C-alpha cells in the first residue's frame, strides 16, 4: 500500500522534510516513488509547498496520507 509521508533530509538540529509517496513498509528515509513537496518547520510561519495536482493524483490511486500530511492538505497555506 502506498502512503504519502514526510522524509527527513535536514542536518542535526536543522530539520527539513520532503513530502514523498512511498510504500508503507519502507524505512522513513528509504526508497520512494516520487517527491511531491517540502516542509520547513523552522521558517515563521512554517513553509509547506505541495504539488496539489500530484497529491490529488496519488490520492486517486489509493495512497493514504500520514496524519501530518493530511493536515497540510486540509489547511493549505498561501505560499
**How would a textbook summarize the main sheet?**
5 strands, mixed
* Name of the CATH superfamily: Ribosomal protein S16
The whole-number mean of residue pLDDT values reads: 92
Contiguous low-pLDDT stretches (5 residues minimum) are none
> How many strand elements?
5
* CATH class label: Alpha Beta
Please tell me the CATH architecture by its name: 2-Layer Sandwich
Distance between the termini: 30 Å
Shape: globular
Question: What is the helix content?
Answer: 10-25%
Supply the number of structural domains. Answer: 1
Q: Which structural class best describes the helix and strand composition? A: alpha+beta
**Strand line-up of the largest beta sheet:** 4-3-2-1-5
Order of helices and strands: EEEEHEH
Write up what this structure looks like.
- With 79 residues, the chain is an alpha+beta fold.
- It has a single domain (2-74), classed as S16 Ribosomal Protein, Chain: A (2-Layer Sandwich).
- Helices cover 22% and strands 34% of the residues.
- It has 2 helices and 5 strands; from the N terminus they run ββββαβα.
- The chain has a 5-stranded mixed β-sheet with strand order 4-3-2-1-5.
- β1 and β2 form a beta hairpin.
- The longest helix has 9 residues, at 52-60.
- The mean pLDDT is 92.
List keywords for this structure.
single chain; 79 residues; alpha+beta; S16 Ribosomal Protein, Chain: A; 5-stranded mixed beta sheet; 2 helices; 5 strands; 22% helix
Overview in brief:
With about 80 residues, the chain is of the alpha+beta class. It has helices spanning about 50-60, 65-75; strands at about 1-10, 15-25, 35-40, 45-50, 65.
